[in-house]
User: Which sequence fits this backbone?
C-alpha cells in the first residue's frame, strides 16, 4: 500500500499545546470483522495486534490515578479484544464514561449476540459507524450486506432503549464516500433521522460527521488515484483558525495496543509519538507509555503536528465527537 506519511511530516500547521487530559482513547487492537475503504487504522479480519491483559490493567490504573472523565475504546472492533468486557466493567465501576466505537455488525457475529445487552447493562455510550442512510453508499465503503446488518443491529439497540432514553446514548458516524469534506452536521443529522426513522423506525441521538484523513488506507487510495495533492489543497483552502481551540488532541491522549502514548488516533497510525522532543520517559524510553501517565499529567505539552492536522480544522472542523462547531 502506498504511504502518505513522508508527505505529512513537514507542515506549516500552527503549534498546539495540550490542556488537561479529559479523555483516554485506547485502541484495543486492529482485529476487525470488516475491512472498510476509509479505515485509517487498516483494520481487518487478518490483523492479530491486540492489547494484553497486563496493559488493560495498566489502563485501569491510569484511570484511577488521573481525573479522566471518558474512556474511549477503539479498534479495529474493540469488542473483539478478549479483555473488552472486563475493562468496561472495571471502568464503569470507577465512574468513568465508557464509549464503544462500534461497527454495529459485530453485534450480530457468533459469540457476540449478547454484547448489546452487556453494553446496555453497563450504560456504555455507543458511537456507531454508519457512513450513509442509503444501502449503495454503505456497500461501497464497507462491503456488501453491511448496511442490512447495520440496520438489524440498530433495531436491536433501539429495542434495548439505545437512542430512545438519555441513559443509553446512541450516536452515528458519517464519513464522506470520497475525497470531499462532510456536509453541515446539523443538516445531515436531520436527513439521517428522517430517512432512518421513516424507512426503518430507527432512532438515535446525534450524528457525528468526520472528515477522511489522508493517511493509511484512504491516503494510499489518494496516492494511487493521483488525487492526494488535490485533497490536501481542499483541506488547506478550508482551514478555519477558530477550530484550533476545540481540536480533540488538546484534551485527549491516545493509547495504542502496546501501551504507547500519542496525541491522537491519527498520529498513532502515523507513528508520531506524544512528547517526542528528546525527553526520556519511564524505563529510559524516548517514547511515553501508559506507565508515564501514572505520575504526570502531560498538561501544556506540545502536540505533534503534521499536514493531516488540516483535516481536523477544515470547514466545520472534525473530531471523534463530530464537527467542532456541531
Assistant:
Amino acid at each position: 500500500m502506498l504511504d502518505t506519511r513522508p508527505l505529512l511530516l513537514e507542515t506549516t500547521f500552527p503549534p498546539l499545546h495540550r490542556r488537561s487530559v479529559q479523555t483516554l482513547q485506547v485502541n484495543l487492537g486492529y482485529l476487525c470483522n470488516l475491512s472498510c475503504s476509509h479505515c485509517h487504522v487498516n483494520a481487518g479480519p487478518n490483523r492479530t495486534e491486540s492489547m494484553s491483559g497486563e496493559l488493560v490493567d495498566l489502563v485501569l490504573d491510569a484511570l484511577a490515578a488521573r481525573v479522566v472523565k471518558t474512556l474511549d475504546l477503539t479498534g479495529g472492533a474493540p469488542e473483539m479484544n478478549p479483555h473488552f468486557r472486563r475493562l468496561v466493567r472495571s471502568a464503569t465501576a470507577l465512574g468513568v464514561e465508557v464509549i464503544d466505537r462500534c461497527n454495529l455488525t459485530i453485534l450480530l457475529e457468533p459469540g457476540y449476540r449478547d454484547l448489546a445487552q452487556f453494553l446496555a447493562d453497563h450504560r456504555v455510550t455507543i458511537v456507531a459507524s454508519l457512513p450513509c442512510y442509503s444501502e449503495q453508499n454503505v456497500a461501497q465503503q464497507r462491503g456488501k450486506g453491511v448496511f442490512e446488518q447495520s440496520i438489524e443491529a440498530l433495531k436491536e439497540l433501539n429495542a434495548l432503549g439505545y437512542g430512545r432514553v438519555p441513559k443509553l446514548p446512541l450516536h452515528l458516524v458519517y464519513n464522506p464516500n470520497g475525497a470531499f469534506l462532510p456536509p453541515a452536521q446539523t443538516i445531515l443529522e436531520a436527513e439521517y433521522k428522517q430517512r432512518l426513522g421513516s424507512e426503518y423506525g430507527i432512532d438515535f441521538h446525534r450524528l457525528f460527521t468526520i472528515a477522511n484523513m489522508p493517511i493509511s488506507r484512504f491516503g494510499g487510495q489518494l496516492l494511487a488515484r493521483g488525487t492526494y495533492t488535490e485533497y490536501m489543497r481542499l483541506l488547506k483552502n478550508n482551514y478555519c483558525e477558530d477550530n484550533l481551540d476545540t481540536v480533540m488532541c488538546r484534551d485527549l491522549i491516545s493509547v495504542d495496543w502496546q501501551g504507547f502514548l500519542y496525541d491522537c488516533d491519527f498520529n498513532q497510525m502515523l507513528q508520531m509519538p506524544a512528547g517526542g522532543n528528546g525527553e526520556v520517559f519511564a524505563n529510559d524510553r524516548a517514547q511515553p507509555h501508559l506507565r508515564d501517565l501514572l505520575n504526570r499529567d502531560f498538561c501544556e505539552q506540545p502536540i505533534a503536528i503534521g499536514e493531516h492536522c488540516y483535516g481536523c480544522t477544515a470547514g466545520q472542523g472534525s473530531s471523534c465527537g463530530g464537527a467542532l462547531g456541531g
Q: What stands out?
A: The chain has one domain: 5-313. The first strand starts at residue 23 and ends at 27.
